[in-house]
Amino acid sequence: MSDALKAFEDGLDEVEASYREVLSGAADEPSLRAANAKLVGPEGRLTKLLKLMKSVPGDRRKDLGQRSNAVKNAIKELFDGQLEALAAAAREAELTGPALDVTLPGRRPLPGRLHPITRIKHELMDVFTSLGFDIADGPEIDTHENCFDKLGFPPDHPATDMQDTFFVKGADGNVDPRTLLRTHTSTIQIREMSRREPPLAVVGPGVVYRRDDDATHSPMFHQLEGLLVDENVSMADLQGALQVFLSRLFGEVVEVRLRPSYFPFVEPGAEVDARRPGGEWMEIGGCGMVHPVVFEHVGYDPEKWTGFAFGMGIDRMAMVKYGVPNIKALFENDVRFLSSF
Ligand code: DAH
Questions:
Q1: 79 in ligand 1 pocket by Cβ < 6 Å?
Q2: Could you tell me how far CA 72 lies from the centroid of its own chain?
Q3: Per-residue pLDDT of the chain (341 residues; tens, 9 = 90+)
Q4: Last residue of a domain, which of 96, 127, 142?
Q5: What angle do CA 268, 274, 277 make, to 5 degrees?
Q6: Are residues 126 and 92 in the same domain?
Q7: What residues have CB less than 8 Å from 75, skipping those under 6 apart?
Q8: Ligand 1, atom 4: nearest CA belongs to which residue?
Q9: pTM
Q10: 109 assigned to some structural domain
């Protein structure tokens, strides 16, 4: 006897002998459906068996085919009968069981609410539009040029390194060194200045990506970029704008401290620290006076135009405003955390 024939006959014997018990053992509809699937579902025993049919010798196919069909029909009949019986039993239990207590309080659906990052983003945009800034946007996948080169980063600057930046694969499957996930929202400065003439005042909130991961760093985080270009803009205008926006955001007078620092696209450049009354200094971003080389790259006359720029961590501001100790909590979507403020 061929192996296939033996396997088929043994398998069929087994299904014939066991299907009744398998189906009648199910105590409710889901287990009945699961038991049925084990027999005739896509991966069921009988289904798999029937796939062997083509290897069964021709003279036996007819008779075994008829037997298989008979089992299949019997299974279907038993399944339908069981399904009905279970439904009837459930109805019966409902009718004769304890009455439904309609005075029990219902389960209240939890109302949705905005994520803290979204909320603070909206608040930031409200504050800045009230100060006369436009809202700008840009893509999360951008070019090396917009993210680094036009902002005055030298080609070998460590920020442009694979260690710090996520590069994107091209259509050929290879990493394309010209296309990346933006590492900061400063790309928005280049995009806005390239398509508009000065004077202008814009802020652009957005998601940025870096290969950083610990309690205060997430590989995906949010920034808000600000840019103002006009004649005779000074560092005092920058400090004043920061002071006003932070105080409006936090609803109390916030102190702002600028610490000299270096960013390729500003001169002079500074880190921005903020302190709420009675609180600790906290670094929230960088800022400075737009570097003339950036104006040249976007076709603005650096002799005529001056400007300030800043970039702030929105997540950092949310942490300060809502007292969140770990940045990861903002992205885990734990409802207990999200509904706590
Ligand atoms: N792009 C900088 C960063 O991500 C932050 C920054 C610093 C933005 C100074 C600015 C600026 O606009 O002037 O670290």
A1: no
A2: 47
A3: 578 888 899 999 999 999 999 898 888 999 999 999 999 999 999 999 888 888 888 888 899 999 999 999 999 999 999 999 999 988 888 888 888 788 888 888 888 889 999 999 999 999 999 999 999 999 999 999 999 999 999 888 887 776 689 999 988 989 888 999 999 999 999 999 999 999 999 999 999 999 887 777 789 999 999 999 999 999 999 999 999 999 999 899 899 999 999 999 999 999 999 888 888 888 899 999 999 999 999 999 999 999 999 999 999 888 888 888 788 888 888 888 888 77
A4: 96
A5: 145
A6: no
A7: 19, 23, 36, 39, 40, 46
A8: 184
A9: 0.68
A10: no
Integer Cα distance of 283 and 310 in angstroms: 13
Ligand 1 lined by 186 (C-beta under 6 Å): yes
> Which of 287, 306, 308, 317 most suits a substitution to test ligand 1, by most atoms within 8 Å of the C-beta?
287
Answer yes or no: is the C-beta of 142 below 6 A from any ligand 1 atom.
no
- DSSP-derived letter for residue 161 is S
- Does the Cβ of 324 fall within 6 Å of ligand 1? no
Chain position carrying tokens 């949310």: 318
Residue 110 near residue 339 (C-beta atoms within 8 A): yes
| Protein residue whose Cα sits closest to atom 12 of ligand 1 | 310
Alpha carbon nearest to ligand 1 atom 8, residue: 311
Residue 189, domain member (yes or no): yes
Domain count, the chain: 2
Q: Cβ(244)–Cβ(230) under 8 Å?
A: no
Answer yes or no: is the C-beta of 310 below 6 A from any ligand 1 atom: yes
What is the four-CA torsion angle of 327, 330, 334, 339, rounded to 10 degrees? 120
Domain region containing 275: 118-338
Q: Return the SS3 of 188.
A: helix
Identify the three-state secondary structure at position 8.
Answer: helix
CA dist 240 and 237 (Å) reads 5
Asked if residue 182 lies in contact with residue 147, where contact means CB atoms within 8 angstroms, the answer is yes
**Contact 192 CB / ligand 1 (< 6 Å):** no
